[in-house]
Automatic annotation (TrEMBL):
Entry keywords, A to Z: DNA-binding, Transcription, Transcription regulation
Organism domain of life: Bacteria
Residue spans crossing the bilayer: none
UniProt protein name: Lrp/AsnC family transcriptional regulator
Length: 153
């Protein structure tokens, strides 16, 4: 669905602050609140806006370590993939998982309290998933850029 300048302005405003009042968005995009509300509803109904969530600071919640774990499966059978993906879904420290191209099968984003906690997550959870063959960890030293906002051009 093509977005017009008003839709892009509305989305941009919501990406900046999802709690922004409709009246403030309306002022920004030069529409009255009623059409802005209708457009937001349409964007939600069309699945362009999938939801609203607070952006949390992991460090303030005790998660000092951010890591990426690269995982290869021993075989790409339906059973292996299903077991792996179920275990990943159930692990609260896995905040994202992507099937990827290249040398590894999955890129798993993990948060942990510290190195020992990462070791526990990796050695007692991820490595023990039936069908996992190789696991490599990458620890984030510093985050240079992190945005959830998508470009709208």
């Amino acid at each position: 669905m093509p977005l017009d300048e008003f839709d892009r302005g509305i989305i941009s405003s919501l990406q900046e602050d999802a709690r922004m009042p409709v009246a403030a968005i309306a002022d920004r995009v030069a529409l009255s609140p009623t059409p802005v509300s209708r457009r937001i509803k349409r964007l939600e109904d069309d699945g362009i806006i999938r939801g609203y969530a607070p952006v949390l600071d992991p460090r303030k919640l005790g998660f000092e370590l951010d890591a990426y774990v690269l995982i290869n499966l021993a075989a790409h059978s339906d059973d292996n993939i299903e077991r792996f993906e179920s275990a990943i879904q159930a692990n609260p420290y896995v905040i994202a998982c992507h099937a990827v191209t290249g040398d590894m099968d999955y890129l798993v984003h993990v948060i942990a309290r510290d190195v020992e906690h990462l070791s526990e997550i990796t050695l007692k959870s991820l490595v023990r998933i039936p069908g996992v063959r190789d696991v490599k960890s990458i620890i984030v030293l510093e985050t240079i850029k992190e945005k959830r906002a998508l470009p709208l051009d």
